[in-house]
Design brief:
Elements: H1 2-21, H2 25-34, H3 59-66, H4 79-87, E1 90-103, H5 106-112, H6 115-135, E2 139-144, E3 147-152, H7 154-157, H8 161-175, E4 186-201, E5 207-212, H9 214-225, E6 230-234, H10 235-241, E7 248-252, E8 261-267
Parallel strand pairs: 4-6
Antiparallel strand pairs: 1-3, 1-4, 2-3, 4-5, 6-8, 7-8
């Protein structure tokens, strides 16, 4: 029994390796094909794994063509991708780049606005971030509260994940108006390194593909210390992206991280 369990775990690990590194050509083709079909700039308008559209004028046609529908229990996935996550729990450790984009002072913003106005503002932020991140080959992990998290995987970005991440971060600052007067104040953290990526689930049957580990924690902490209009990047990210931007080098003592981390701060308009 134990050997059977180990064999299944090994099989799952091999599957996840092929999915995340790009050796699984099926997922790569699916994302390229489904990504051609337009959707509204709304949250969960398409499956975040294969990009099949759930909304928009092409969605009914795609449902008839490929038979994929929104998973009712977790509406950011289609039922076909949900089956993959459920049938193959596990994952692998791979090198990734991560973006965390955080709305600065969101509590104060909410206190100064009517609820309906604040909701519209956040929906605009989510729509803007989703459009930019998907275009940059990111896997959007989470849209929660006042924060967006995205992962750049080898399967989607090849060897250019760090470069895709920092340029998407800069484009997001520009799109939110940080070269002039921002319509929403955000700070961004970007980090590159090894992380566990895979299917994380519960006994209730809810599964999600996400990233875990120190690399994720550092990227999140970078976002938490970034001032509005700033991108806080790690040295590995800067080296891997080969950028020549004007940045300020800092050594940051981050909450929950033992030693100080060298970081490079880029400011919009610099």
């Amino acid at each position: 029994m134990e050997s059977k369990t180990q064999a299944q775990a090994q099989k799952n690990e091999e599957l996840w390796w092929s999915l995340l590194t790009g050796e699984n050509s099926n997922l790569r083709r699916e994302r390229r094909f489904f990504g051609l079909f337009p959707t509204p700039d709304t949250q969960n308008a398409r499956c975040k794994m294969c990009l099949v559209p759930f909304e928009g004028i092409t969605a009914p046609f795609m449902r008839r063509l490929v038979g994929r529908r929104r998973w009712e229990r977790f509406p950011c996935y289609c039922d076909a991708c949900e089956n993959k996550l459920r049938a193959n729990p596990g994952g692998v450790e791979i090198d990734v780049s991560l973006i965390f984009a955080d709305v600065r002072g969101s509590a104060n913003l909410a206190a100064k606005m009517r609820s309906s106005e604040y909701i519209r503002l956040m929906q605009r932020f989510y729509a803007t971030a989703t459009r930019i991140l998907i275009k940059s080959n990111a896997y959007i992990d989470k849209l929660i509260g006042d924060e967006v998290m995205a992962i750049y995987l080898p399967a989607m970005s090849g060897t250019h994940g760090a470069r895709d991440a920092v340029f998407a971060a800069r484009e997001l600052l520009i799109a939110t108006g940080h070269v002039g007067e921002p319509w929403i104040p955000i700070g961004i953290g970007v980090h590159t390194g090894p992380a566990f990526v895979g299917s994380v689930g519960s006994e209730s049957g809810i599964y999600d593909m996400t990233a875990l580990g120190d690399t994720v924690n550092i990227a999140a902490r970078f976002a938490s210390v970034a001032e509005r209009g700033e991108i806080v990047m790690s040295t590995p990210t800067c080296l891997a992206s080969s950028i020549d931007w004007t940045t300020e080098k800092k050594h940051l003592q981050l909450k929950g991280i033992g030693s100080a981390i060298e970081a490079h701060v880029f400011r919009a308009g610099a």
